[in-house]
Design brief:
The chain is α+β, with helices and mostly antiparallel strands and 395 residues long. The protein is globular, with a radius of gyration of 29 Å. Helix 2 packs antiparallel against helix 10, helix 7 packs across helix 9 and helix 9 packs antiparallel against helix 11. Strand 2 and strand 3 form a beta hairpin. InterPro entries: AA_ABC_transptr_permease_3TM, ArtM/GltK/GlnP/TcyL/YhdX-like, MetI-like, MetI-like_sf. It is found in: Cell inner membrane; Cell membrane. Pfam families: BPD_transp_1.
Length: 395
């Protein structure tokens, strides 16, 4: 019905009765308040630093460090700069994080499956392990592996021999080390070619399986490529590296690689601790899969191993991956506890020694926090990408 021409108009709403206008106003006020608070804190910090004669900035990174580091994956001596110390601490943190994530994942999956085993003894042993190690603080476990296991080891002259060229003592694990030769880069290129070939084979096998239902032995083909191509390159260009063997000379070993006891203790503690949580994630993921899937696989005659590997685990991963990401992040952040036993990680080296020597607390802490934030975000992005790849796609 058309309104009369002389009908009164509805009164126009005021600013305070418009929800969108109020929302914009409050957001602008909040942003201004946060910026004002940040500016005040910045000015106050600058004033306090000037009063104490502390120069701000990152010029200190070019100064000579003047101290030694027990483990460094790149060349280092006392004349190198604090910037190089930062890189060494970052590499050491990444090293223990990657090793810990790798072994914790394997151990956690084994324990998670064992927790559901029909064998009573295996099931109870897995339960005792999980309930024990996940309820002990990680720092105490680090202390246990370091002070109760590694330090009581015999000295170099009485080392525990593991085979012919592995020696374990209170100074670490000594092992053969590869030394690059002229054929090294040709070998690296061959490995890159192998990786590309394996990816191509995997895609071809997937397309064939979807088209015909036939499975192609991707694993065997990948192993063959990994052996044949680098082997032929080594025959043509020569061996990619030679081995430097550890030899006892005087009171210590010379040559080879040494894995310091701090790294061994830290890796063991983080692996054992995180694996207990991963095992629970795996157990819950497997139990989230309908039991009808197992019955259907058995009705097709699939053995238990193939049922678990081809039917249950692929579906359980959609439940396991999100909490697994959190455990990877926790392991990476728990690696900062390495300062308790003197492992030269990011916190111990940069946020510890460098901060004490330079007094640049704000810059050092800001860099350290930014690095851990970047590592955590990178892990989250990688795991979220993988989670999307295995997620069910609705039609």
């Amino acid at each position: 019905m058309q309104k009369p021409a002389n009908a009164p108009r509805a009164p126009k709403g005021s600013f305070w009765t418009d929800p969108k206008a109020r929302a914009w106003l409050f957001q602008i006020i909040a942003v201004v308040a946060v910026m004002a608070l940040g500016w005040y804190l910045f000015q106050n910090t600058q004033h306090n630093l000037e009063q104490r004669g502390i120069l701000s900035g990152f010029d200190f990174l070019q100064q000579s460090a003047g101290f030694g580091i027990s483990q460094h994956l790149i060349d280092y001596n006392e004349s190198h700069s604090y910037a190089r110390v930062f890189v060494i601490g970052l590499l050491n943190t990444l090293l223990v994080s990657v090793i810990g994530i790798f072994f914790a994942t394997i151990l956690g999956f084994i324990l998670g499956v064992a927790r559901l085993s029909p064998n009573w003894l295996v099931r109870k042993l897995a339960t005792v392990y999980i309930e024990t190690f996940r309820n002990i603080p990680p720092l105490l476990q680090i202390f246990f592996w370091y002070f109760a296991v590694m330090l009581p080891m015999p000295g170099p002259r009485n080392s525990l021999a593991i085979g012919e060229h592995l020696f374990l003592n209170n100074r670490g694990l000594y092992m053969p080390a590869p030394v690059a030769t002229d054929g090294f880069w040709a070998f690296v290129v061959s490995l890159l070619v192998v990786v590309a070939a394996i990816i191509a084979v995997a895609r071809m096998a997937k397309a064939k399986r979807e088209a015909t239902g036939q499975r192609f032995p991707v694993l065997l083909a990948s192993l063959a490529l990994l052996v044949v191509i680098p082997g032929l390159v080594s025959l043509v260009f020569g061996a990619p590296f030679e081995w430097s063997m550890p030899v006892l000379q005087g009171f210590n070993f010379r040559g080879g690689w040494v894995v310091i006891p701090e790294l061994i203790a830290l890796t063991l503690a983080l692996t054992v601790y995180t694996a207990a949580f991963i095992a629970e994630n795996v157990r819950s993921g497997i139990q989230a899969v309908s039991h009808g899937q197992t019955e259907a696989a058995r009705s097709l005659g699939l053995p238990v191993g193939k049922t678990l590997r081809l039917v249950i685990i692929p579906q359980a991963l959609r439940v396991i991956i999100p909490p697994l990401t959190s455990q990877y992040l926790n392991l990476t952040k728990n690696s900062s506890l390495a300062a308790g036993i003197g492992y030269p990680d990011m916190v111990s080296l940069f946020a510890g020694t460098v901060l004490n020597q330079t007094g640049q607390a704000i810059e050092v802490i800001a860099i350290t926090m930014s690095v851990y934030l970047a590592i955590s975000i990178s892990i989250s992005l990688l795991m979220n990408w993988y989670n999307k790849r295995i997620a069910l796609v609705e039609r």
